[in-house]
Write a structure and sequence with these properties.
The structure is a homodimer. By secondary structure, chain A is α/β, with parallel strands linked by helices. Chain A has nine helices and nine strands. Chain A has a six-stranded parallel beta sheet with strand order 6-5-4-7-8-9, sandwiched between helices. In chain A, strands 1-3-2 form a three-stranded antiparallel beta sheet. In chain A, helix 1 packs across helix 2, helix 1 packs antiparallel against helix 4 and helix 2 packs across helix 3. Chains A and B meet through helix 1, helix 5, helix 6 and helix 9 of A and helix 1, helix 5, helix 6 and helix 9 of B. Chain A binds a DNA duplex through helix 3 and strand 2.
DNA sequence: GCCTGTGAATCCATTCACAGCT
DNA sequence: AGCTGTGAATGGATTCACAGGC
């Protein structure tokens, strides 16, 4: 596969998807898996699996399949999840707290090293071992000092844009926004808007049509 | 636009997106908006906005634009969010608790009427006014009795499939799964898998390529 | 003149089908 | 024989560009 090809976003998201069952299969042996088997576990098409992987190299053996352990390693390398990432949370809402303590994040090497809130009554609290809630005014200083790479926004929708601006100004690399307000940033920074009321509304739409 | 046309999922998700700024614009007057303006607020293409809306009718006036209030009403009707929906949470993790108390859900008419957990030490607690945590064994009974339409799974990945099976068996209409394990259900039930570690991994991928 | 509604054109992603390797 | 890697074919979704109505 030619280098420099633009990789489709759905492909990246599926790579993450593939890694879940692979992790579970690590203990099994023989640790080989076919594209058909993996596809079934993830609910996708086998050709899709092969094409996704082929963007990055030839990881399989024709007539045999993929080695589970090696494939997982390769995927982690591609996704850059073979190392620790430093995050901060902005907005100590219940959701912010839940993410801070989230086992699935920890397990994958996403570590929260700072927490911010704008409401003075929340400052100084310790929602997690070693973390003290800091005011927005310290975002710039701490993002730089601690080398924070990803900012997670869990404020109310009204504060989301301000939070994003502060993070960008602090030189953050990427933003994940959980508030139901689209945030816009200048430059080529990476932003994921994960508004899950949108997903709920998709469910409501489908349910509303049936009865 | 012909009736019976299959509506693309992205269109539904964007309709939800459009409704956010429209709600904020409700108080303004004159309460008119052009596809271009709305598109800009949501970060999409103006033609996209018009095409999305055209699937469902002619809501605008040529040469003028869309009436904010009426457009919002129409969108809510399409998405079936002009009424209350009854939900339950399965898995009283931090995330489960955060969703239960989530203002954005409440504001949009999504009401949690039951909460379940499998761990006996959590049973009987009252995470929210009027709600008592119930064992999995009561899912079937309560989903039927309370008329619960949407089940939200916030268990560990290891319990997610069992939770889904129990919900389906109880006759639930739709499932939203927050655990990082794909759940599969038989039949035509609607399932949304909202694994946000997948989104994080997308950010990591992009960040990993830059420096 | 202005902005919607929409066929046509383009772009992107998925699936098929088979050549190629073990 | 079996399963990967991939060009070709298909299927969707987005964008363009303009006709149509205020």
């Amino acid at each position: 596969m030619a280098k420099g090809t633009k990789i489709p976003t759905p492909t990246i998201e599926r790579l993450a998807l593939y890694s879940r069952p692979l992790e579970a299969l690590l203990k099994d042996s023989p640790s080989l898996i076919s594209s058909e088997k993996l596809a079934e576990l993830c609910g996708v098409n086998p050709a899709q699996v092969r094409k996704d992987l082929a963007y990055f190299g030839e990881f399989g053996v024709r007539g045999v399949g993929y080695d589970v352990k090696e494939l997982l390693q390769q995927i982690k390398k591609i996704l850059a999840t073979d190392r620790e990432w430093k995050l901060c949370i902005v907005g100590m809402t219940n959701l912010g707290y839940a993410l801070l303590e989230n086992e699935n994040f920890k397990r994958r090497g996403y570590t929260f090293v700072a927490a911010f809130d704008s409401r003075s009554q929340n400052l100084g609290k310790k929602p997690s071992s070693g973390l003290t809630v800091q005011p927005f005014s310290r975002i710039k200083e701490l993002v730089g000092m601690l080398g924070i790479e990803i900012g997670v926004i869990t404020t109310s929708p009204f504060e989301a844009q301000r939070a994003a601006d502060l993070l960008v100004d602090a030189g953050i690399g990427a933003i994940m926004n959980f508030s139901p307000a689209q945030v816009r940033v200048k430059g080529s920074r990476v932003v994921e808007n994960v508004d899950f009321t949108v997903k709920l509304e998709n469910l409501a739409y489908h349910l509303g049509k049936i009865p």
